[in-house]
Structure formats: C-alpha cells, structure tokens
Design brief:
Elements: H1 3-18, E1 22-31, E2 34-42, H2 49-68, E3 77-83, H3 94-99, E4 104-109, E5 113-123, E6 126-131, E7 136-140, E8 144-149
Parallel strand pairs: 2-3
Antiparallel strand pairs: 1-2, 4-5, 4-8, 5-6, 6-7
C-alpha cells in the first residue's frame, strides 16, 4: 500500500470518528480505469442511510480538497461507497479478530487460499482458527489478505 493511500485511510478513519462513528475499515479497489473507495462505519445505534450519506459527503469533500491541492490518490475516476459492515462484517485489524473470537469466518490466506472456520483467539500476531475439518491452525495475521464473518 502506498503511503498516500495509508494516510488517506487514516484520515478517513479520523473523519468518521469525528462524526461519531466507528470506522470499521477502508478498502480501495482499482480496475477498468476507475477506483472504488469503500468505507465501512458502525455505531452502537446501528447505521442508517443518512449516516452513510453524512460520512460520504465528508469523505468526498476531503478527497476533492486534497486532490485540488495536488495530492493524487487515484488515477482516473473514483467512487466512494459508505456502508455498515453488514452481517458478513469484514475483519481488518487484529482487534477485530480478538473481538470476534468464537465467530465463524471466511478467510483468504497467502499460500493457503480460501479457508473457513471459527476464530479461537488472536494473540501476538497469530490468529488461531479451528478450520472446518477440525484442525486447529495458527495463521500469521499479516498472511490474512481478507477476512469476514460468515453468515
């Protein structure tokens, strides 16, 4: 991840939190000459359409202002999507794996491909998983390229 994109993610988290929301995560996908910036927000009261609109406007204003001042985050067109994490909540941080210990998850892991199982723990950078076949596996957090709660 480029430092510009890493800084963008930090700034988006700050914007969401200043608006009263937890920023669950930020994901950027590029392809076909366009980029999609996905922002996942949550709150104790839940997330409604108005909440997503509020954060989307704030993020859009921030990105537009930064790009007008010369910071280019995207080459070509970009779109911003803001949503709740939903029932198949994405897991972005070690804290998410700690928080959702006991939950069934779907993972993509470097060198192993797709995996499913139940999170047993997350300690010292290792996510312990009881895979669907019953095997208990320790996965380096850094090797998990994508994870989400299985519904």
């Amino acid at each position: 991840m480029t430092s510009k994109l890493a800084n963008l993610k930090k700034d988006i988290s700050r914007i969401a939190e200043e608006s009263g929301y937890e920023c669950v995560g930020v994901d950027c996908v590029s392809g076909g000459g366009r980029s999609v910036l996905r922002v996942f927000i949550d709150s104790l009261e839940g997330i409604g359409h108005e909440d997503c609109e509020r954060v989307s406007r704030s993020v859009s204003q921030y990105v537009d202002r930064e790009e007008s001042e010369g910071t280019k985050f995207f080459s070509g067109k970009y779109f911003i999507e803001v949503s709740s994490p939903g029932v198949e909540r994405p897991l972005f941080t070690k804290e998410h794996y700690i928080r959702f210990a006991g939950a069934r998850v779907n993972l993509r892991v470097k060198g192993r491909g797709k995996m499913s199982g139940v999170i047993l723990s997350c300690e010292n950078g290792v996510v312990s998983l009881r895979a669907d076949d019953g095997e208990e596996i320790g996965l380096d957090f850094e090797d998990i390229t994508r994870g989400n709660i299985a519904f």
